[in-house]
Amino acid sequence: MEKDWVKIFSSDRPFEAEIVKGMLSENGIIAVLINKQSSSYNIVLPDQVELYVHETEEKVAKDLVHNHNNLPTGDPDSVDPQQG
Q1: Lesser CB count within 10 Å: N end or C end of the chain?
Q2: Residue 52: strand pairing partners
Q3: Cα gap 10→49, rounded to integer Å
């Protein structure tokens, strides 16, 4: 990876990394996805997909990822009845 880029997210699920990359893009942050999975063996290892952003956008990107990960899942069993 080029100098001045930092890893802000990693996963063993490529679709999850694509979702996070899209969310960052919608917020004006350029993210680079690096997929380290071996397609020839279709082996899934931990943290094989990584997202990088330029270091000048690291704080904002990490905040967005943190907020994204804390969103409700849409599972009705996880809704707080007092909040509706």
Answers
A1: C
A2: 7, 32
A3: 5
Backbone angles phi, psi at 23, to 5 degrees: -65, -40
pLDDT in tens, 17-72: 999 999 999 999 999 999 887 666 666 566 688 999 999 999 999 999 888 777 55
Question: pTM value?
Answer: 0.71
CA separation for the pair 32, 16 (Å, rounded): 14
CB count in 10 Å sphere of residue 18: 15
Question: Is beta strand 31-35 parallel, antiparallel or unpaired with respect to 49-54?
Answer: antiparallel
For the chain, how are helix, strand and coil distributed in percent, rounded to 5?
35, 25, 40
